[in-house]
Amino acid sequence: MKYWFHDIGDVEQGNIIEVTLDKAANVRVMDSDNYESFRNRRSYTAIIYYITSSPFKIKLPRSAHWYVVVDPEDQPGSVVSSVKVYRKSTSEKPV
After folding, report:
1. 17-32 tens-digit pLDDT
2. pTM
3. CA gyration radius for the chain?
């Protein structure tokens, strides 16, 4: 499977991540344990979206070390993506 990932590090519950894509793609948001399982093609749990318009905001359900995986599926070419983290106390300022 061809995919790109963003290691966004330790992020607290309730913070917002903003994902921007240049074309539609599947986006998986997962903690470090589930990302390791995903990489090794084992069963994993993730927050999964098919994003068709950007930017797209996701509120994180708990504190953890998070990864954002961008998967273009069978679409030709690559997907240009970026991820910003907004702290809940200063939601207008990306980290």
Report:
1. 999 999 999 999 999 9
2. 0.85
3. 13
